[in-house]
Amino acid sequence: MAPPDREETPVRVTLVAETRPGERRVALTPEVVAPLVEQGHEVSVESGAGAAALCADEDYRETGAQVLPAGDDALLAGADIVAHVRPLLPDQIARLRRGAVTVGFVTGPGELDGIRALRGCGTTALAMELVPRISRAQSMDALTSQALVAGYRCALEAAMRLPRFFPLFMTAAGTVRPAKVLVLGAGVAGLQAIATAKRLGAVVEAYDVRPSSADEVKSMGATFLDLGLDAIEGTGGYAREQSEDRAARQQEALTPYISKADALITTAAVPGRPAPRLVTRAMLAGMPAGAVVVDLAAESGGNVEGARPGETLDVDGVTLHGMADPASAMPVDASRLYAKNVTNLLALGLSAEGWSLDLADEVLDGVCIVHEGTVRHAPTAALLEEEG
Ligand SMILES: NC(=O)c1ccc[n+]([C@@H]2O[C@H](COP(=O)([O-])OP(=O)(O)OC[C@H]3O[C@@H](n4cnc5c(N)ncnc54)[C@H](O)[C@@H]3O)[C@@H](O)[C@H]2O)c1
Fold it and tell me: What's the 188 CA to ligand 1 centre distance in angstroms?
């Protein structure tokens, strides 16, 4: 899109309210809207968009943004750029003008219809989940900021559901031993779960398939479990899927540690694949009475057999909780971080001179999943092809 003339055509940025059930985050907070308005852009906010994240319509008005009634046609039809958190719905996309740019999460199970709509409407979509993991893009990395919130939340869920203390207590009435917490998967969320459980006073052990995670686990004051298995690391610092044989050996090696844990937090993931199954029902049955298991991967198939997102189950006396949309459970700070990620990304193309998308920029090239109706992200294009 050619940069609009600053004097005549300021960039019109729209903040839409989230529509998915239970989603409480907002894509732009007043804190990040203010500099956009100061730069000369016209920001329109759908009334109530920030309410669940404690951002009132009035707070947006004070920045100079205009607040339009919920569902007002001008919100989508008049936008140059639309900011959102969860993927836009096809009927929202259908109301965008050709050449409009959307920024937010785009992909995920069941979201292909939205991508087809983006393609069909000639729009350009920037996918927050595709921000490359390079140091220049760290301030735009929404997967990291939201995983941090999720990991913190997992540790709190475990602490709240465990019928005993996390910390050591030495009192006149006796000594209470600290809880033993085991964290599986020590990426961004796992490390935050470790840090939070440590702050609450638990004794924490952790395991990850990536060898580089050992030092990170130790730097948090936790013990890294050396299971004597081969390490597996894929590209970009991510894990690879393990073979069935290795998965079985990992389960066997983890069993004695799981059987001693009061709380188990699982956060393991492999990009583009269902969550690896780390814990079977038989392993749960061997845990101490009253033990708690929190599975962050419940929405993508579960690290733990039987885990279901948003449900808390009693499995042979063990409490099994499947996390559902954990970042949305802490919408204030999750939104603040996400909004910064979004505006840091937009700043690569948005200035007082207008908007321009330079696809020679490594970050914009990485995030631009659909450009003027063409799907550029090869795995997504292949999925669309497969599904017809
Ligand atoms: N800007 C950056 O450079 C940047 C930003 C964020 C993260 N990172 C790095 O990317 C890596 C992964 O981050 P993430 O948290 O998004 O990963 P993720 O959410 O894809 O996976 C979570 C963790 O699960 C682990 N895992 C996968 N299979 C497992 C199994 N069978 N058993 C145990 N653990 C298993 C992975 O190794 C990973 O640590 C880390 O090295 C992190 O430091 C880099």
Answer: 6
Give the distance (Å) from ligand 1 centre to CA of residue 239: 6
State the chain's mean pLDDT as an integer: 94
Q: Which of the listed residues 134, 210, 283, 304 should we mutate to test ligand 1's pocket, taking the one with most ligand atoms within 8 A of CB? A: 210
Whole-number Å distance, alpha carbon 79 to ligand 1 midpoint, is 36
Span 43-98, pLDDT tens digits: 999 999 999 999 999 999 999 999 999 999 999 999 999 999 999 999 999 999 99
162 and 296 within one domain? yes
pLDDT tens-place string over residues 180-206: 999 999 999 999 999 999 999 999 999
Same domain, 269 and 347: no
One DSSP character per residue, 294-339 reads EEGGGGGT-SBTT--BT-EEEETTEEEEE--SGGGGSHHHHHHHHH
Domain that holds residue 369: 12-130+332-387
Ligand 1 neighbour 278 (Cβ under 6 A):
yes
CA distances to 18, 85, 142, 245, 285 from 334, in Å: 14, 11, 9, 38, 35
Instruction: Please indicate, yes or no, whether residues 166 and 219 belong to a single structural domain of this protein.
Output: yes
Please count the other Cβ atoms lying within 10 Å of the Cβ belonging to residue 236.
9
Q: Tell me the HSE value of 22 on the side-chain side, using a 13 A CA sphere.
A: 9
- How is residue 109 written in tokens? 């199970």
Task: Specify the residue with its C-alpha closest to ligand 1, atom 18.
Answer: 269
Polymer length in residues for the chain: 388
The total of structural domains in the chain comes to 2
What one-letter code names the amino acid at 18?
Answer: E
Residue 168 has, within 13 A of its CA and on its CB side, a CA count of 5
